[in-house]
Description:
13 helices; 21% strand; alpha/beta
Amino acid sequence: MGFNCGIVGLPNVGKSTLFNALTQSAAADAQNYPFCTIEPNTGRVVVPDETLLKLAAVDNSEKIIPTQLEIVDIAGLVRGASTGEGLGNKFLGNILETDAIIHVVRCFENDDIVHVNGKIDPLSDIDTIETELALADLESLDKQIKNLTKKAHGADKEAIKLLATAEIIRENLANGVPARKLDVDAKPFNLLTAKPVIYVCNVDESSAASGNKFSDMVMEKYGATNPVLIISSKIEMEIAQITDPDERKMFLDDLGLKQSGLDQVIKTGYETLGLQTFYTVGPREAHAWTITRGMTAPMAAGKIHTDFERGFIRAEIITPTDYIEYGGEVKVKEAGKMRTVGRDYVMQPGDICHFLFNV
């Protein structure tokens, strides 16, 4: 598994349309974008990876296992969701299970689609959602602080430390500052506002390439601190109907678009979460694995199996360029291009690994 994103937004902003478009687009090209439904509102799409396909071709691998993006379509949140309005806390809980939030903001005008607040105002819409997430976090923190206070009175050193951090977060949340913007470790508290946010401006078809006055507002206010993508869910639905990759590229070129919305989301998600890919390759299977930047070789080995990390001895590393150029592991070894690394080696993007371990 790679990573998962929860799509949030007010009702009628194009959130579910975008979800359907991204997942159907993934299904359109069976080789590069397989898609399956896990639940009615959850889908998985394969992360496009040309390198993996090339590596598999070198060894004629029987199986190709790419990394995946899971997308969760969370029902439209409304003002008061944190206190149970609309579908309320059930879906706020779903957000907690995701790695990142894709916040879809309505940046198009259409008299046939009623806006829940009666007007198109993306900044107000963002504020509504973020207020509800903050209120839910404040409620959660109050409960946690209560428990930590009891433990702190018992001289629990860890509780004392966590209590101080929780109070800093609570004070900032009360002043409108989300946990993700603070220089503290919010992980122990499992907070909604600690998750990275990618803003998706859902624009009309004519604004897909350059945006419009509404997306400009979002970019101006949030672009310096958060990724802001401009995507037209209507265009993504059209892309979903095109099964031929070359035709899809021509369609995007005609619109002046460099990437589909799916590609934008995947690329931005990887960058936002600080992720990278390494590979294991052989005749039986070519496998892409997702890890966090900065992980060492034993930690990466642990992604395959905990025994690999526990009994790690060393790793043999090959670059994809060498693997493809020389035609596989044996010839890379003969050319002296394979490196042997130890426990302190920090994984590099694209490393092809053979882990040696003993348990």
